[in-house]
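Can you give me the bound-state structure? Components:
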Amino acid sequence: MDNGLNLFENIQFSDILAHLNKGVLFRSRWQLSVSEGEKELERILEEYHTGQLVIKGVCKIITNEKKGYFAVTVGSSGHEKALEIYKMDRYFDYFLFNGLLSELAEAAAEWIDQFIRLELGIDKSSRISPGYPLWPDITDQEKLLKMLTAEKIGISLTEAYQLVPEHSITGMVVENKNLEKIKLNG
Amino acid sequence: MNNISKIIKERPLLFDGAMGTSIINFGLTADDYHGHINCNDYLSISRPDVITSIHEAYLESGCDIIETNSFGSNPLSFSEFGIADKAFETAKAAAMTAKKAALKFSTDSKPRFVSGSVGPGTKLPTLLQSDFDTLYNSYLIHFSALIEGGVDLFQIETCQDLLQIKSALAACYDAMKKYRCDLPVIVQVTVEKNGKMLLGTTLETVVTALSGFDLFALGLNCGTGPEGMYESIKTLKKISPFPVSVLPNAGFPELINGKLQYSLSAEKFGEHIGFFVKDLGVEIVGGCCGTTPEHIRSAYGNINDFKMMAQKYPLAGSAVCSTFAVSELDVELKPLIIGERANATGSKEFREALLSGDTDGMMDIISSQQSEGSHIIDLSVGYAGRNELEDMAQLVKLINRDVPTPLCIDSTDPQTIETALKCYGGKALINSINFEDGGVKAEKILTLAKKYGAAVIGLTIDETGLAETVERKMEVAERLINSVLKAGLHRSDLLIDTLTFTLGSGDPKYFNAAVESFKAVKKIKELYPDVFTVLGVSNCSYGLKPKARKVLNSVYLFHAVKWGLDASIFHAGKVVSLDCVESSAKKICEDLIFNRRSDGYDPLHELINYFENDKLQDEKSSAAASLDPSEKLFSHVIEGKTKGLEETVSELLETTEPLEIINNILLSAMKQVGVRFQNGTTQLPFVLKSAEVVKKACSIVEPHIKSGEVNKKGTIVLATVKGDIHDIGKNLVDIILSNNGYTVHNIGTDRSAAEIAAAVDKIRPDAVGLSALLVKSALEMKNVAQFLSSNGMEIPLICGGAALTNDFVEKEVSPLNRKSAYYANDAFEAMNILEKLKNG
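Here's the bound-state model for the whole set.
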């Protein structure tokens, strides 16, 4: 689709799970061993009906520039559920669930990254987000969200340019040989 | 002999600084990388002039050694850029470029050297992201290319995984053998803020795992700035048999005047380096990420005229280790226990799990031995009809990743042993070698022990069979010791098993089997005190009925330890403490063990009869259930277990005042959990489990408190500042503080200064806790401080969040607040600050 938007109102949860980085989830976020992590993941997915989360995404592919811009979000229902768990005083589960939401967002970003790469026919690419060294101006978030009409999937910004809901990721996918510092115009 | 080895005895050696962060300054484009953007190593081929000028800048600032630009120059890492086939030429080019630069600056009085840099890659074998052989093959190319390019030494650096280090070392030594050179090898690990490596490996574990290798130095690089390394350096200096190398980052990347920079100035960096060398005795220094020629120049100025004092290096200790922890072989309360339940032929439970492919079941058996007190876990998977190599590899990989108790590889087949060693990053124990075949297999296995870093159990068996007398046992023992030394291992890497043939055979030849074993143990300890002795407890009772075996094993072990036994191979279910053995049974066993017989008195018959008649009561069941309720509640908290909590609390309420329960048991248990978290014994998720127990218990107890009685340690208002919606950090602090006796008013996220001030006014807390994730929202904390001050509020601030640093809070927030602001890295630090504030 040239210069058009691809809107994903409900990305299949199993597709997202396929991109879940268990190594980071278990060892880094959860600080558990891998076998402990597998057990807890199975339990958390089931007990809190995590598969019912509605994960959304939108991307804009600019074919002639071999670039794709995207935004994904796990949605505010995930965060609301996390707070419910917290209020039930299930601290361990709250901690795990929150970490899982962050990694699900990452997995969704991976998923849409793959989508963009397939559409553009590129295989060596990088994914960059505003606020990181190659895209230093975090205020570009505003321009990016506008370009993507991200309000359609419920994403907005705080005045400190933080994404709301918090388990959202935005960025750009570009072929490695076109990688350079990014600044959005207009 | 290499010059470097001489120089290090006289003065410290100075490495260069960062390559990667220097390259950024050149503003290179994709063309400069020939399209392989992000592959800095490739610049050695495409823009060697850039690399040369970086080398020369460092050489000008006075360093002795420059590192090659070859951190990822191996096929595995290069395959991520699609240029695996270019790795060799790139590594070689990197070495040649560096060598040329070094020679340009080298003089007789100040020779300059080139260190071949070898990084860890991106795949951690312990997490099963890659395997030993794949890494080895890739590293072999890496090291070969560097040798061909002319490096003077090697740096295996920024390591995060012991198993990766071993694969690199194996390739390194094999490459040097191929090219017939013998270059110094440095290994450097990266240590996180908690003082451990990424996977949880402590420095003690690193030293144990690597002490058998001939390293030039063992040290640290990357991860933190110099301030974060003091404790680690002191630890290494205390226990490492090698010189120490330290290459810190130039602090942390921080927000300074709106720009992201590495925070530590060249001047401060140099001061720290000076301190490392002159006060801590570090022999090799340099810089990692963020350091520049100025940093190195400053370091040079601080260590330039320093003459090294003669250093004493501790001897390599006697221990084995897993990925996570060390088991010293010389335990205070003998014997060291080698748990033997994970044995396919010896344990029905384990065998059934193995045959049915029940990996979880096998892992449960393996891990449960730790709580039974095993210091080392023996694994034997050989079983008729099965592929021992496959079974061994599969299990050892999981054990390496998940089990903190060190492993004992139970096999006599060198191939199986090598397979296991390639899956294990720690220092394993090998069970066992002997001289049955004249020593052919023994030599192979000892070579493996040297190559992969392992200790060995040796049996007193030779070509003529099992050694039965003390003299023969000592003969074989001495032969074992010589073989071990010949293979390049230490005496303390050997445990000798003086084998007792079963006392249950009734064969007069073996009446003294136990006595001879004990005497041999004593003699070995006398003549070779640094060699260890081990006995397999169950061997002595083979053939007898289970109840008899249990008692005989227990008495046998008791006496063996008295004769000097260091270690024993043990099944926790087959041995009991002697208090549980009836004295008449004990006497019969002792008579059997020490061959005290006479006409008409055969202790073996007596023993058999004793248990035939079943007049023995079962040994007293263990005292597990008799903890009193307050101890039970305490352990509910420590272990984070809610099962049975309600009953325990209800029971306790009958005898104890509710406030006492809360303060003396719940809060003090939670405090201990906090201590264990801060010293790394337990992780955050388990702390939260404990907090859940406290919360639940408190909710049962609190209704019983008479009104007006509750005393809390203090009150705090918590908020995430305006513009920031992250609450997990703040909520974790809430959980920890609330369950440690504080009243927490958590007013939520995205709170303006005015809202925070209103809460302070209403609640009158002892402090305000501010949380922020992003840099931009961290700046908002300054507004909060300003607002509180200008409204006349005097309240200390405690600030936390990913983007914050101590410096930021101390220098930019604190001056704006009337009662200062303090940086807290986590909830427990926040608690410490609150306590200090209270005590004034």
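A couple of observations. Residues 658-678 of chain B form the longest helix (21 residues). The first strand of chain B starts at residue 13 and ends at 14.
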